[in-house]
Amino acid sequence: MKKIDIFNKLRTSGLRPTKQRVEIAKFLFEREKTFHFTVESLNKLLEKKTTSKFALATIYNTVHAFKNAGHLSELEVKGNKTYFDTNVSNHHHFYDSETSELIDIDEKEVVIQKIPKAPNGKKIKNIEVFINLKN
Asked: So what's the pLDDT on residue 3?
């Protein structure tokens, strides 16, 4: 993705392209592969890979603004860890609890033959398969 695309991506989703948002967006979206991260792991990576300093609150707010704009998806793993994913399409994950790594599984690789009916008053929003791994 080119620099101009980052600016357009932010502007077209209603986000002001501040210096910090642009730098975080470039780090997240200018890559070949899907990127999974927690806010804390992103903070550590930004400290290592960029010359700018970001407050954790800035990273948190920026990530949530990107999520709300549809540029990131949010995934809860085991109810206590929140990951974000740059791949917002419908897909599934392997989760390695020993390394805390999420690995994409193509949607076509998982075949679901029967889905239970949602409880009264509820609708199924989407289906995500998490396959937990261990050594």
From this structure: 57
Count of the separate structural domains present in the chain: 1
pTM of this structure = 0.86
39: three-class secondary structure by DSSP: helix
Per-residue tokens: 78: 């085991």
Where is average pLDDT lowest: 72-81, 86-95, 105-114?
72-81
Which CATH number covers residue 116? 1.10.10.10
Both structure tokens of 127: 């289906």
Q: List CB contacts of 124: < 8 A, sequence separation 6 or more.
A: 115, 118
What's the rounded Cα separation, in Å, for the pair 100 and 125?
26
- The CA-based angle 67-18-56, given to 5 degrees, is 60
Q: Where in the sequence is the domain holding 61, given as residue range(s)?
A: 3-133
* pLDDT of 4: 57
Burial class (CB in 10 A: 0-12, 13-18, 19+), 102: buried
Map tokens 């860890």 to a residue: 81
